[in-house]
Design a protein that fits this description.
Blueprint lengths: L8 H20 L10 H16 L11 H40 L5 E3 L6 E3 H16 L2 H15 L9 H42 L5 H19 L1 H18 L5
Helix pairs in contact: 1-2, 1-3, 3-4, 3-6, 3-8, 4-8, 6-7
Length: 254
């Protein structure tokens, strides 16, 4: 092996672009972008996988200049952001459903910091987010990401990523699908909550001494929790299907 060739200008630029591709992916895709993982660890992982994948990387195909290098760096960052956005839109269906469930259960104010996104969200959304994170590990999604990077190196040369019009259409469709599927997951609890509101309203009309705050809300929360436990298996299956569709949609990048 010619070690001197590793320090040539083309090799250094290729290594830099590959490192930026891994860094952008680890900063946006689920699991790797988890806020509980320190930035130093993410940077070390990006550097390690850059070294590992560098041997199988095709030769650099762009012209080396200040302008082309700047455009190539922006392209690699955009590539990681698009991949992360596609996967996050599928992942966030379950957190959106958790927000709807928390609203009808009266847990809107009971919020906590979500370790995945680092933002405050209702407690039910955080619970479902942790369940979704375990599902992603069970699907070996972290391995899928690495295999996708290996495939992308031969399909999309470093610095050669371009946004296709079909990709914009998919992102819009995926965003609308996130709300639709999220509402579908939360619909059983929302429907029973509305039904319990009607029943409680009828009871208050016939029995004025019925205290909704003392009796109605605990019953409503208990019913919602029971339905949430019963439908949890189907929610996991829906999340698995959404993540599978999102990974299949990554072929639009090629």
């Amino acid at each position: 092996m010619n070690w001197a060739s590793l320090f040539q200008y083309d090799s250094v630029v290729a290594f830099l672009l590959l490192f930026i591709r891994f860094s952008a992916l680890f900063a946006t895709v689920p699991i790797f972008s988890h806020t509980s993982i320190p930035m130093s660890v993410k940077s070390a992982l990006a550097f390690f996988f850059t070294v590992v994948f560098y041997a199988s990387m095709p030769p650099l195909a762009i012209e080396i200049s200040v302008v082309s290098l700047f455009i190539a760096i922006l392209g690699e960052i955009l590539f990681g952001m698009v991949v992360g956005l596609i996967l996050l839109l599928a992942y966030n269906t379950i957190t959106f459903a958790g927000g709807q469930i928390s609203f009808v259960m009266g847990f809107t104010l009971a919020s906590a910091i979500d370790p995945q996104s680092g933002v405050s969200m209702p407690i039910i959304s955080q619970f479902l987010s942790l369940i979704a994170l375990m599902v992603l590990f069970s699907l070996d999604m972290h391995h899928w990401i690495l295999l996708f990077v290996d495939t992308s190196l031969s399909k999309i040369p470093l610095g050669g990523f371009m946004m296709a019009p079909s990709l914009f259409e998919y992102l819009l469709e995926s965003a609308s699908r996130m709300f639709l599927v999220g509402f579908m997951i939360a619909f059983p609890i929302i429907a029973l909550s509305w039904l319990s509101d009607v029943i409680f309203g009828m009871l208050m009309k016939t029995m004025p001494q019925f205290n909704l705050l003392v009796i109605g809300f605990p019953i409503k929360i208990a019913i919602s929790l029971i339905v949430l436990i019963v439908t949890l298996a189907s929610t996991v299956l829906i999340l698995q299907e959404e993540m599978r569709l999102a990974f299949n949609a990554l072929t639009l990048l090629f």
